[in-house]
Amino acid sequence: MKIQQRMAFHFTYQLIFYALLMVAITLVACILFFQNMTSNEIRRNFPVGVLQQIAQEAHYKDGTIQISPEWDKLIEEKGMWLQVVSAEGEVIYAVNTTPHHTLPASYSIAQLLDIQETRTFGTYAVHTQLNFAFQDPLLYILGYPSPDLDQLVAWFDAYGQHGIVRSEAVSHLDQRLRKTGSYLQVIDPESHIVQGIGDEAYVQKAYRQLDILAIQQSPSNYDTNIVAHRDKLSGMTWILYTPHAAGAPLKHPVMEKATRGLVRITVLILLLALPISIWHGYRYGQPLILFAGWFERMGRGQYDQVLTAKDMRKVFRRNGMMRIRYRLYKEVIESFYQMTHQLAQIEKERERLEKAQAEWMSGISHDLRTPLATIQGYGYMLESLPEQWSQEELRIMGSTIREKGDYMLELISDFSLIHQLKQGDSIMKFREIDLVELVRCSVLKYVNDAMMSEYQFHYVGEDCPLLIQADETWLMRLMDNLLSNAVKHNPPGVIVNVYVGRMNDKACIRVIDNGKGMDEETLHHLFNRYYRGTNSDESTEGSGLGMSIAKTIVEAHSGEIQVKSKVWQGTIIEILLPN
């Protein structure tokens, strides 16, 4: 896997992890919000709201109904009981009915109608919920003991006469009601208030007919609880108002369980995120610190010390394998090694070139100083007593001064050529020329030179023209350098053969001599302008820049030059130029 892919993978799974973390936190927040809403709704409508939630969440299949155990637990904690009645009147599901022995296993139509009308069953207050979510209708019956209702029935039996409170018992009942802050109201079948006994605060509230039903359905919306008992004989209804005792808010048990689970998951993710974040920071920070150390050492020029001994122990195992936390930067580390190796090589090459340049400058200074000393000496001699010298001596002096001057001019000319060649193609004027004719003329110039009579030049070329795109002036200079080198560095009698033709679809020039050749060291540094392979005795035979200039001219023409030579076996110079 490439470093780009690894980086993308590492940061992608981090992004996914933190995205999941955010989603989990958001879900917890949403569930807490909905739980609060649901809990408030259950509290306002308790116990009716509980029965509605149970009916909505129940699952019914093949005559079997399933309800969350959390609801069963809540019903038992509240001292209630629950029965689910099928369409045939059979109880198919029951919760906490064991302590209540009077509860039947099936219901008749009359019992169900009476429960629906009176909202009571025996001594229990009852709420019902008819559900049509499944193929068959189901009736959910939620019952619970009601001390207020029991008290109301007991008072009816003790103080009631013809459906109202006996006159002699009104005072006693009024005292008992005021102690608990309660109020008893007796209404006739036409809803007219017949009696009102107890705390007059309830009289001031003047509950309307629908308010009475609302208190029964949503008691938490009011500060009053009510229970009612209707006397079938007289048609009178006794309604007992008692203060609403505020307790702990009811919570949706299923939602509460899911919330606890999500909270645990979120806390776990947060606990995992902390060490993972520290681990990632350490993992990505350590290599950066390592790189900073590299840069610092590179700034000090310590290119050969990529890693310190301590760093090596951090990055690599004892078996040489890279540690896991650094494998993400494997390519970077390898590139650093390559770069520092190249910089170290460049630094060594620079030092070598500076040394060679210093040696070359020392040699050039010597080469300039020697002819200048000769010229200066002859000048003093001619200046002091010119009449003492014969004509022949004066001729020798003049010839020597001229030769030394020519050598110095050649040296300065080579310096100028090197400066020009550094400018590249800007000094080249390419046009179509005949390479065969150019080489032939270059060789012919040396053949016809009387001063070269001790050397033999042979030319072999094609009869037809060999046309190439080149700068004629610079190619002439190239041939002069090659032929003059063959003369300068070889003894008289050497044979120089020059061939021109085609080879591998390229123009080819070969200059071959049978002279003294070169050793491996000289051949290796032949094209180095800062290297002089000649000894001090040959210092006046050339500047030492000829082959460097030749190579630069060939490369400026997009060509190649190769030299093969062995000591006392001659030299072969081969040049390939594009057509």
UniProtKB/TrEMBL annotation:
The keyword ATP-binding applies. One of its GO terms (molecular function) is kinase activity. Gene3D superfamilies: 1.10.287.130, Histidine kinase-like ATPase, C-terminal domain. The keyword Transmembrane applies. InterPro entries: HATPase_C_sf, HATPase_dom, His_kinase_dom, HisK_dim/P_dom, HisK_dim/P_sf, Sensor_HK_Regulatory, Sig_transdc_His_kin-like_C. It is an enzyme of class 2 (transferase). Keywords: ATP-binding, Kinase, Membrane, Nucleotide-binding, Phosphoprotein, Transferase, Transmembrane, Transmembrane helix, Two-component regulatory system. PROSITE patterns: HIS_KIN (PS50109), PROKAR_LIPOPROTEIN (PS51257). Residues 363-579 form the Histidine kinase domain. Pfam families: HATPase_c, HisKA. PANTHER family: HISTIDINE KINASE 1, TWO-COMPONENT HISTIDINE KINASE. This is histidine kinase.
